[in-house]
Design goal:
This protein is of the alpha+beta class. It has one domain. 24% of the residues lie in helices and 11% in strands. The chain is built from two helices and two strands, in the order βαβα. The chain has a two-stranded parallel ribbon. The longest helix has 10 residues.
Length: 71
């Protein structure tokens, strides 16, 4: 199994909370952690960081800058 986190859009349906520079998957929607953090941490219980594939657009890549929560 290859775990995949999909973060390619900007969450325009959550406008005005979600913006291009801060898409919904990086907003703290549940407690203080973002959806990206929650998904990544959940996958880390069973997978190594190098086994987790993050599918992102070029603009999202610039935002996350390949920095995963445990690096």
């Amino acid at each position: 199994m290859i775990p995949v986190i999909i973060c390619g859009g900007f969450g325009t349906k959550l406008w005005p909370i979600s913006r291009q520079h801060k898409p919904k998957h990086f907003l703290p929607l549940i407690g203080t952690k973002s959806l990206f953090q929650l998904n990544y941490e959940g996958l880390r219980t069973k997978f190594k960081p190098e086994e987790i594939y993050i599918s992102e657009s070029a603009l999202i890549r610039a935002i996350i800058n390949f920095s995963k929560p445990d690096k």
